[in-house]
């Protein structure tokens, strides 16, 4: 589109809750702790293979700690979301950033999910399901009360939005 009708895609305005950084760090640490623990226990129990088990455990632990220290802050700077009367906008990613736009007229369901770690950090995920083959649009790392309000707001907007006939 060109001319006056053209709109420039801009980053969505809203950041996630800062607690999402600690939530992501905890996920990285838990993901790392399992394999490191198994390797360390096996290394302690199997003397002939001790070096072959403990060296990978240390390498994996260092990599996991580095990821837990660096990646969540980067994700926090990249992840954005916004809801307008026309659509839900989400930008996520790491090396490959993804922008998702869900027009209100295409939204089928709005769900709020809170896993055990999210509950611990008082966070929630809003899942906006459309007819897209790409799947649902997810807004992760929201304050749980904000997520509940957002789900209610989206439900009201989609009910007031005529469906897309295409």
Automatic annotation (TrEMBL):
Protein name (Swiss-Prot/TrEMBL): PH domain-containing protein
Taxonomic classification: Bacteria, Bacillati, Actinomycetota, Actinomycetes, Kitasatosporales
